[in-house]
Amino acid sequence: MAKTIPMIVTNENILVWDMENEEFKPFNMPAINNLPNIPFYHQFAEKIAEGQYYFKEFMKGIYGKKLSKYIFAIIVPDDTTKLESIFINEFFVNSGACKAVAQMPMALALSKNDDNYISVSKSSRNVVLQYVRNHETVVSKMYDATSCNPAKIAEDSKILHIDLEYRDVPVYVNNFNMNMDEFFSMGKVISPKEFMEKISVIDVEKL
Known about the structure:
The chain is α/β, with parallel strands linked by helices. About 20% of the residues lie in helices and about 30% in strands. The strands form two sheets. Strands 3-2-1-4-5 form a five-stranded mixed sheet, sandwiched between helices.
């Protein structure tokens, strides 16, 4: 049976779970510059073959040469578009560093025990409010990260879906990127350490 390697696409790099040392290790593509409101991996498209080579060599350094037996469980920011998801999948599948990939937004990884909850997170470009039910996103709303009003988002969280008018559900504030201070009052804050602990034990069957 293929083994699962958890990975997190952050605002700045890719974190890969090192099973032997039980820690996440960062992969940083050489010669990548941070651009406003543009995820860093967009620049991979300019040098796909080169980027895939560097990534495969990085993975060999952690897992050796027998990479084809692994499946990547890739956790992506909540505002990842469908086109970006396709690119991410294709980049990793065609890198030769895995057998297959599975992908999931961060919001769906915040709780394994709640059937219903609200997630609020912030990427490099958007604040994302989501209502999660039975491990699927039912509805989401995005706000420009540079001009959003936290008080308005807190109010919107109460009327995001009709379910929320009849039941109290927990709110999880995803502080993985350490950029959610103004949202702490909305609910339970998930620290980077807590988030990575949840991801480190994820399995493809749960995606």
